[in-house]
């Protein structure tokens, strides 16, 4: 199994070892506060009776599944609470492949590197389909690429790393392609709270037996370490997913589920709006600086990354390391995300994003 | 994938719906207090800075790995912190199968039902080898069964459901069999704190490139819901296991890891002794009552189950349900654990174990 995380760690380690101040724009860890109710949930749990320390139901606390179901407008029995979206995507891909309807998984290029890694681990053949020049999904190219051997098409909106947000027509078209090829459309929507465009549409908007939606609270509540995610399966696929979840993990961590449940119930819209506004301002300041630096970039409509390239400065590991040493900014080489070796990705989850932008504007590329 | 947990749930649901008081001896959830330091760890975490809510290292908090490494006498780099022993066993089986050295996994009969379920999910062929009449491992039968197609031999000591504890000679012989067949010996030691015999030996006692040890804090700290376990791999297998762990789960839950770390550091031997003593007393009282009832059983040297059979009362689901209705005691049908359809398993993780024993002694089988 080849997988690019060593490169990810490599850049972080290189930045940490650098002989100067470096602004870390590598990792995707939110830097803002989790909801106060989440902390309250953990405090409450710490004092609970011993039986609260034992296995929750394998597919998650019933109340949490119901809370999620009500928000997503689906039956709670279609939901499996997972160890983050990481496990949810793993279960979704496995569900697609267990159908014996081909072993190819279509992904976008650029692509979040976990997807091809997971696909290969499950014995599938990941195939990258380039996005449009503006970063939007190329629906026609996807339709062209899909065929009898396509088990699944995985999309991610708002997108990491492009920041593209797929609208209702796009999502409906993708489900149509999946249905036409007896494939599953897997829609990873972990950044759904960070849509700056207002155009985001969930794949749950279409009632289809060929769509699986994955999500987590890692990004929306700034709690990547709590590991609470979920997958919404079509009714006929949920039982097999539940079995695999049980055989791999038994169940997810209960303190995390209790804390997320309380946070879901008690956190108002203003919490989510505040993080979205914070990110929108960072995006604006950062892209203004990129304009000043003469960089090309995909303007993000959502999520919290900026995918960019600088004239005469391909996004190789060597150049990324030079940028650490010379500009004090650490980012990810573009070929981590597919074939985009001219590009780099900046994560805007640092209060120093604007300062980083100024450093880039001052840097002589 | 067929898997017996639906039966497990079925019995629990049947017991819960019964029109009388029922003592639940089905599930393996400890009923005693977790360490106080574990609660303190959760409280401390609830007040931590936002960055403590983000991803821990994929293979677990460094301090936790080092704490475990020091206790087990191994290098921390051989340890992957997992989502409970469930994931640890999944990673261990996958590591054995990825070696392309056969697709058979030898298990004992009776067997913990997750093992054959996991093996089949990974595409392996589970093969059950009967234990000796007293429940002890039949090393000669294992040696006979192992061959070129054996990828792994999985043992569990102290054993669920037999209560057998494997001594140093047995463990060394099993590692020898694994080495002779280029297989991996997978040793699941989750009940290691509940050895009443003093004979328990870990597979880590033998320095072998063919042994993987799995464990968790679920049973020793009475926290099955926190999902913190680990696997100790030979150095040449750890990287692939880390990759699979990352691709399936990204990482485990951080609040749970922080709490376990604090509990490991601050909990004295008296905590573990108290739970062991509690269980020993329950085993004695329960087996005395089984003697009075004329039942046959395997006397447990460890863990917290009693595997028993009653003359003329095979452990079918129908009989288990009759026992719920007529005696007010819920247990697990024996064929859940392999081919032992004459038997039933009682879990002694209820303060009412002695009362249950009296009900059984009074029951007309």
Any descriptors?
365 residues; alpha/beta; globular; Aspartate Aminotransferase, domain 1; Aspartate Aminotransferase, domain 2; 13 strands; seven-stranded mixed beta sheet; four-stranded antiparallel beta sheet; 12 helices; homodimer
If you compute it from the alpha carbons, what radius of gyration of chain A comes out, rounded to the nearest whole angstrom? 20 Å
The CATH topology of the largest domain in chain A turns out to be: Aspartate Aminotransferase, domain 2
Shape of chain A: globular
Can you say what the CATH homologous superfamily of the largest domain in chain A is? Type I PLP-dependent aspartate aminotransferase-like (Major domain)
- Domain module count of chain A: 2
Helix and strand element order of chain A: HEHHEHEHEHEHEEEHHHEEHEEEH
Share of helix among residues of chain A?
Answer: 40-55%
Q: State the secondary-structure class of chain A.
A: alpha/beta
- Give average pLDDT of chain A, whole number: 95
CATH class identity of the largest domain in chain A: Alpha Beta
């Amino acid at each position: 199994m080849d997988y690019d995380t060593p490169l990810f760690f490599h850049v972080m380690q290189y930045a940490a070892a650098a002989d100067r101040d470096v602004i870390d724009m590598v990792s995707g860890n939110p830097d803002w506060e989790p909801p106060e109710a989440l902390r309250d949930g953990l405090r409450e749990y710490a004092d609970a009776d011993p039986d609260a320390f034992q296995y929750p139901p394998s597919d998650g606390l019933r109340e949490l599944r119901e809370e999620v179901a009500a928000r997503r407008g689906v039956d709670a029995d279609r939901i499996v609470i997972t160890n983050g979206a990481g496990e949810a995507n793993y279960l979704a891909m496995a569900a697609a492949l267990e159908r014996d309807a081909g072993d190819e998984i279509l992904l976008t290029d650029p692509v979040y590197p976990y997807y091809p890694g997971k696909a290969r681990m499950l014995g599938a053949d990941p195939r990258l389909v380039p996005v449009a020049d503006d970063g939007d999904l190329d629906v026609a190219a996807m339709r062209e690429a899909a065929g009898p051997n396509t088990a699944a098409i995985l999309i991610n909106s708002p997108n990491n790393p492009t920041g593209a947000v797929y609208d209702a027509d796009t999502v409906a078209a993708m489900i149509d392609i999946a249905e036409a090829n007896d494939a599953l459309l897997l829609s990873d929507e972990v950044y759904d709270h960070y849509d700056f465009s207002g155009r985001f549409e969930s794949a749950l908007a279409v009632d289809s037996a060929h769509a699986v939606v994955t999500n987590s609270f890692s990004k929306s509540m700034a709690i990547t370490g709590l590991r609470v995610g979920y997958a919404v399966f079509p009714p006929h696929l949920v039982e097999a997913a539940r079995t695999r979840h049980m055989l791999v993990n038994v169940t997810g961590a209960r303190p995390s589920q209790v804390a997320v449940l309380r946070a879901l119930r008690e956190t108002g819209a203003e919490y989510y709006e505040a993080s979205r506004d914070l990110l929108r301002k960072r995006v604006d300041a950062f892209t203004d600086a990129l304009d000043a630096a003469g960089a090309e970039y995909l303007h993000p409509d959502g999520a919290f990354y900026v995918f960019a390239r600088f004239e005469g400065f391909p996004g190789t590991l060597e150049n990324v390391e030079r940028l650490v040493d010379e500009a004090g900014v650490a980012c990810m080489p573009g070929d981590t995300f597919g074939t985009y070796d001219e590009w780099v990705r900046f994560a805007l989850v640092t209060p120093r994003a604007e300062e980083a932008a100024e450093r880039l504007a001052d840097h002589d590329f």
